[in-house]
Design goal:
The complex is a heterodimer. Chain A is of the alpha/beta class. Helices cover 23% and strands 21% of the residues of chain A. Chain A is built from 10 helices and 20 strands. Chain A has helices spanning 14-20, 60-70, 88-94, 141-148, 166-175, 189-197, 248-257, 308-319, 323-330, 332-337, and strands at residues 6-7, 10-11, 35-38, 40-45, 47-48, 51-52, 76-83, 109-110, 113-116, 154-159, 179-182, 202-203, 236-239, 262-264, 277-281, 284-289, 292-295, 355-358, 364-369, 372-376. In chain A, strands 4, 7, 8, 9, 10, 11, 12, 13 and 14 form a 9-stranded parallel beta sheet that branches. In chain A, helix 7 (248-257) links the parallel strand 13 (236-239) and strand 14. In chain A, helix 8 (308-319) runs antiparallel to helix 9. Chain A is globular and about 65 Å long. Chain A starts with 5 loop residues before the first strand and ends in a 6-residue tail after the last strand. By secondary structure, chain B is an alpha/beta fold. Helices cover 33% and strands 13% of the residues of chain B. Chain B has helices at residues 9-27, 48-58, 80-93, 130-136, 156-160, 175-182, 215-223, 225-228, 242-247, and strands spanning 2-6, 37-38, 99-103, 124-127, 150-153, 164-169, 201-206. A 5-stranded parallel beta sheet of chain B has the order 1-7-6-3-2. In chain B, strand 6 (164-169), helix 6 (175-182) and strand 7 (201-206) form a beta-alpha-beta unit. The N and C termini of chain B lie close together (6 Å). Classes of the chains: A alpha/beta, B alpha/beta. At the A-B interface, helix 1 of A face helix 2 of B.
Chain lengths: 382, 254
């Protein structure tokens, strides 16, 4: 049992306050024995509550504001709005409207966009529309730049490393501070390792939209235990632990093989938070039935309607890991992936005071951003 | 003196805690009426982080004390002797130490008053004995070269001025020091023995610490536990009225 001290939006070291400044608390809040954890960071979320980040609508800004506000109740304090494979016009219209900004009472902070596609494999396109897929064979990085329009505010790019000239592109993206993720790909292990050597650090929804693990060529999955990762670097991998995208046994295998790289993501789509029925995911139509989300008329999974806190709970149950491990997979690890762990994803002194109060069953009771309460579970029963 | 013998380390700690609590409550502290609790300097102050962290984590963060009422000797002060003299003044200004709580080293020292310290010494700079440096190595990852060799400490005389002294002694490695402190004479080589001349001393120890004492001594004081336990039961609370608290008398005098 400990006290958490916060001042001016940052976690404060109470000893310095006590001994050097002779100060004490101005406001004391009884957390009633709740668990206090760093706020969750969702690096793959395509929309929610009827909002689709891959649709260039007139009220796009208010859409992103709505989602950022609603996910506070799931414990998410920072996120990367994700765009699925789309025609260049969509990127040119939407990307300028996604600005990196701090969270607060208005909603979770935006860390930057995650562009999943269009430079992905035809065979593993999943729910992405085939007619929008592209390659960068001709102009490598320039092709990518002209497709997206600009890389301002782009945090993560998912691409398939087996594509020609991918190494150049990965290198260029990495040198510009963009996190490169491997996904929707039929790459074998050596292609994946080469991509990592050129700077790739993430795997988009492990197991989904990639070749299955084979004992003589583990493919991208093999990166979890590869010995060709450059020293001092760690490969992170996203997992959608909604109970549908991955069998719990597979989740456990990944977790046990490389626990420190596991990053929980929701891959949530517009239908998240809404009643079952039909919704869009970029250029596609999606049907939602319970927790299952398929491309209309098919059995192809497309995103999920799981919320971040549900994923954390399911992850903890399925793997039997400690509460700390489960919470770190949703906070510390994504922060480490994006290189922001000195500010986010922890409760260390001087980091941003984005934290949650959870009960013992890991249900979010209250969400705080920069030391301000931005959401509280309504217990009045009204 | 009162010699309180409990079976285990945790029982001894709990008895001491209850005693201190009752003493504070019965004193009836309030604004301007300070219950001055004296504690030995613990770790040498050259490492402000270590000592401050220790006190913060083990004591201050659990209680509602105002930071202005916390006085710790500053080993980084420009003029160490002035710092020590100022400390003595602060004690006087607060009305003197009501209760001093300390332990003893295996060499029988109280605070950092190493063997050979004057029994009427005041707060000053002391060079530490090898025994003490070895004992403190655990706070510096076992690296002897990192352990500071000097410390600021309250003097034996300073502690003798306290209205009451409580010494906690646990573990077999302290048994010989306890024997020297209470069954032999007053001797500056075993500075804790000075408290034989203090009117109000309580020694709290566990079984292991009594291993070097005469059976007669141990039996005598164990027999007194019935009476001594009245000092910790009932356990008083600040919420009771002033009249109730001050009515409780000490069961007997030394």
């Amino acid at each position: 049992r400990e006290d958490l001290w916060v001042r001016e939006g940052k976690i404060l070291n109470p000893e310095k306050l006590f001994f050097d400044e002779k100060g004490s608390a101005d406001v004391q809040l009884d957390c009633k024995g709740s668990i206090i954890a760093p706020g969750f960071i969702d690096v793959q979320i395509n929309g929610g509550f009827g909002v689709d980040f891959s649709l260039a609508t007139d009220d796009f800004k208010s859409g992103i504001d709505l989602v950022s506000q609603k996910i506070l109740s799931h414990g998410v304090t920072s996120f990367c709005p994700t765009l699925v494979t789309s025609p260049p016009s969509v990127y040119h219209q939407v990307l300028p409207q996604i600005s990196v900004r701090n969270g607060g009472a208005h909603g979770a902070g935006i860390l930057g966009a995650h562009l999943e596609g269009p430079f992905i494999s035809r065979e593993k396109k999943g729910a992405h529309p085939e007619h929008c897929l592209r390659t960068f064979e001709a102009g490598a990085f320039q092709d990518l730049l002209s497709t997206y329009g600009s890389l301002d505010g782009v945090r993560i790019v998912t691409l398939a490393p087996e594509m020609k000239r991918s190494s150049e592109v990965i290198q260029e993206l990495t040198s510009r501070g963009v996190c490169v993720s491997l996904g929707h790909s039929v790459a074998n292990l050596s292609q994946a390792e080469e991509a990592v050597q050129h700077g790739a650090t993430f795997i988009t929804h492990l197991f989904n939209a990639m070749l299955p693990f084979h004992h003589r060529d583990p493919g991208i999955v093999g990166l979890l235990t590869s010995d060709k990762i450059p020293a001092g670097r760690r490969v992170f991998y996203g997992m959608i632990s909604d109970g549908i995208h991955t069998n719990p046994a597979a989740l456990r295998i990944a977790h046990r093989a490389h626990p420190k790289g596991l990053v929980l993501v929701t891959d949530a789509i517009a239908g998240m938070g809404l009643a079952p029925g039909r919704h869009t995911l970029g250029q596609q139509v999606v049907e939602i039935d319970g927790l299952n989300t398929y491309i209309a008329g098919t059995k192809t999974l497309s995103g999920s309607v799981a919320t971040m806190d549900t994923c954390v709970r399911h992850f903890q149950e399925a793997t039997g890991c400690s509460v700390e491990m489960a919470l770190e997979a949703a906070s510390l690890h994504p922060a480490q992936l994006l290189g922001i762990e000195h500010n986010k994803g922890t409760l260390n002194y001087d980091s941003d005071a984005d934290f949650l109060m959870l009960n013992d069953s890991l249900y979010v009771q209250a969400t705080y951003i920069a030391g301000q309460e931005v959401w509280r579970q309504d217990t009045s029963g009204m | 003196m009162k010699l309180i013998i409990l079976e285990t380390y945790s029982q001894a700690s709990e008895w001491a805690a209850k005693y201190i609590r009752n003493r504070i409550v019965q004193f009836g502290p309030g604004p301007g009426r300070f219950f001055t609790l004296g504690l030995p300097t613990g770790l040498p102050r050259d490492h402000p982080e270590s000592y401050h962290s220790f006190m913060w984590n083990n004591f201050f963060k659990h209680i509602d004390i105002s930071p202005e009422n916390v006085h710790i000797l500053d080993g980084n002060a420009p003029d160490l002797q002035a710092e020590c003299d100022a400390f003595e003044e602060k004690i006087k200004a607060a009305g003197g130490i009501e209760l001093f709580v300390g332990g003893i080293g295996p060499d029988g020292h109280i605070a950092f008053n190493e063997p050979g310290s004057s029994l009427v010494s005041r707060t000053r700079v002391k060079t530490l004995a090898m025994d003490t440096i070895l004992a403190n190595a655990r706070f510096f990852d076992g690296d002897l070269s990192k352990v500071p060799t000097m410390a600021l400490t309250v003097g034996v005389g300073t502690v003798m001025d306290a209205r009451e002294v409580m010494i906690l002694i646990t573990g077999a490695h302290k048994a010989f020091a306890l024997y020297k402190a209470i069954e032999e004479g007053v001797n500056h080589m075993w500075t804790v023995s000075a408290f034989q001349q203090h009117p109000n001393t309580v020694f709290v120890c566990d079984e292991d610490a009594t291993l070097e004492l005469k059976v007669k001594t141990v039996k005598y004081f164990k027999g007194l536990m019935l009476v001594h336990n009245k000092l910790v039961e009932p356990l008083y609370s600040m919420k009771e009225t002033g009249a109730e608290r001050s009515q409780s008398k000490k069961p007997y005098s030394d």
